[in-house]
Amino acid sequence: QPFNPTSFLVHAVSNIICSIVFGDRFDYEDKKFLTLIELLDENNKLQNSIQTQIYNFLPTIMDYLPGPHKTLIKNTESVNQFISEIVAAHQESLDPACPRDFVDAFINKIEQEKGNSNSEFTAETLTRTTLDLFLAGTGTTSVVLRYGILILQKYPEVE
Q1: Structure pTM?
Q2: Any idea which UniProt keywords this protein has (predicted)?
């Protein structure tokens, strides 16, 4: 039977990113994980709206106007909250001598740079970097994999 592999690929890629960044994978039916994917997917769609593009150039004015850019901001705050909760849990169970994942390594670097006022290693930077990894990695990687599957379908002799 034909099927659309998009959701399977997005879930798999997101879970691999979670494994690298958080040191743990989520069950594919986990509500928090599914909510994270839905928020990221919705934000990808909202980024194409004209209001969101105008917001990128005129944020002060657009703060007073309704539109999809408001939803995008709210979704981003929800994803930041999700990431912040995981970072807080990592800080509580951190063993500086044995980092488990990207978050632990970043937290170690934050501690090393504590005295440096010019350091870019902050909790906010950690949250933003993690968000960037999800935004950049999930969509692009799953699309590339989807195109790879299509190419293999078109040229079965290559498969």
Answers
A1: 0.82
A2: Endoplasmic reticulum, Heme, Iron, Membrane, Metal-binding, Microsome, Monooxygenase, Oxidoreductase
